[in-house]
């Protein structure tokens, strides 16, 4: 008897759209039992896999770069491994691939729809694209990846509606509907949405979409055969860079918070994303910070440190035309100033 193919859902959306938050909510639902999660990040230090709350070990970090460029081979290898495990009797009912916010979905689609090894065991269930209601309009104006993510979606999900006015949310919804006439437009409240609304989308079909979608896929097919993706960094704006910092000792919250505030105020346009898992002095639990451009969300304490974590603070930023040295010097200066203040207070 032929084994039923395992459905694969691609979860995408530009930097800061709320993919990890939504994924955490989804994975608590009974429909998501026996789900393997593949997470891709842009940058040398991966964080999202530490922030996904799972009861098992089926979270795989694809961290060699952007999924649409350098790790397509990794994606195929991991799916091949999952297929072998399923063949051996392990229960794997579904796969979710969370892409980096900079991912162009065309090469990912091309891989899932045409690779013979992948097709033998898996079927593309659909692309779910999250769009930040607060910054989505500006992102669509400036980022071609965001336009492709929206145009190729099988499900469009508006997030962070609490940060947007009804008028701006309505204008964004109208633009998304024009950009993608076939995808239902859904709304997530604080990352919560019923799994049934996102799953079983029926696979990808270019029919009814903008003609550009078919063109992107056709161009990708040729690109895949004639170019080496491991040297394809020019897919993204050359000014975009991921920088990461690791701190061995606990950090003073006053220094970190003041630095984040100043960064958002003075260089927010150049900060596409900030995400950190921090060991804060005086706190037993890890603190998560994240922000997009001028908007930073309240810090969140996790219930506990992830298993086997070394408790070092890790901070990753995706910057546009902002040198690493500028960010690093500011961060170090604010941390030292806060530490000096702590010394004076306790001295």
TrEMBL record:
Domain CobW C-terminal per the UniProt entry, residue ranges: 240-335
InterPro entries on file: CobW-likC_sf, CobW-like_C, CobW/HypB/UreG_nucleotide-bd, P-loop_NTPase, Zinc-reg_GTPase_activator
Pfam families: cobW, CobW_C
SUPFAM superfamilies: Hypothetical protein YjiA, C-terminal domain (SSF90002), P-loop containing nucleoside triphosphate hydrolases (SSF52540)
Catalysed reaction equations from the record: GTP + H2O = GDP + phosphate + H(+)
Function: Zinc chaperone that directly transfers zinc cofactor to target proteins, thereby activating them. Zinc is transferred from the CXCC motif in the GTPase domain to the zinc binding site in target proteins in a process requiring GTP hydrolysis.
Identification of the protein by name: GTP-binding protein
Organism: Neoroseomonas terrae
Lineage start: Bacteria, Pseudomonadati, Pseudomonadota, Alphaproteobacteria, Acetobacterales
């Amino acid at each position: 008897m032929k084994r039923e193919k395992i459905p694969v859902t691609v979860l995408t959306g530009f930097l800061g759209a709320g993919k990890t938050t939504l994924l955490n909510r989804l994975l608590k639902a009974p429909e998501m039992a026996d789900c393997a999660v593949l997470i891709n990040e842009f940058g040398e230090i991966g964080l999202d896999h530490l922030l996904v709350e799972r009861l098992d070990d089926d979270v795989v970090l694809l961290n060699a770069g952007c999924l649409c460029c350098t790790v397509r081979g990794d994606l195929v290898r991991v799916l091949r491994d999952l297929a072998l495990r399923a063949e051996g009797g392990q229960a794997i009912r579904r796969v979710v691939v969370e892409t980096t916010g900079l991912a162009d979905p065309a090469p990912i689609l091309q891989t899932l729809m045409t690779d013979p090894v992948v097709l033998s065991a898996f079927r593309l269930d659909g692309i779910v694209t999250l769009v930040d209601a607060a910054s989505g309009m500006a992102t669509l104006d400036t980022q071609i990846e965001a336009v492709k993510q929206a145009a190729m979606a099988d499900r469009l999900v508006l997030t962070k509606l609490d940060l947007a006015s009804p008028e701006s949310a309505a204008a964004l919804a109208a633009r998304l509907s024009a950009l993608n006439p076939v995808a239902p437009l859904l709304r997530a409240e604080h990352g919560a949405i019923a799994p049934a609304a996102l799953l079983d989308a029926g696979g990808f079909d270019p029919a009814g979409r903008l003609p550009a979608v078919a063109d992107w896929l056709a161009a990708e097919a040729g690109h895949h055969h004639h170019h080496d993706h491991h040297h394809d960094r020019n897919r993204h704006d050359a000014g975009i860079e991921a920088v990461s910092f690791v701190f061995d000792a606990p950090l003073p919250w006053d220094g970190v918070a003041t630095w984040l505030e100043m960064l958002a105020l003075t260089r927010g346009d150049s900060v596409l994303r900030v995400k950190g898992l921090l060991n804060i002095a005086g706190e037993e639990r890890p603190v998560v910070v994240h922000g997009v451009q001028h908007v930073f969300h309240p810090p969140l304490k996790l219930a506990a440190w992830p298993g086997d974590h070394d408790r070092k603070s890790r901070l990753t930023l995706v910057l546009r035309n902002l040198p690493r040295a500028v960010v690093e010097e500011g961060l170090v200066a604010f941390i030292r100033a806060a530490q000096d203040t702590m010394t004076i207070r306790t001295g």
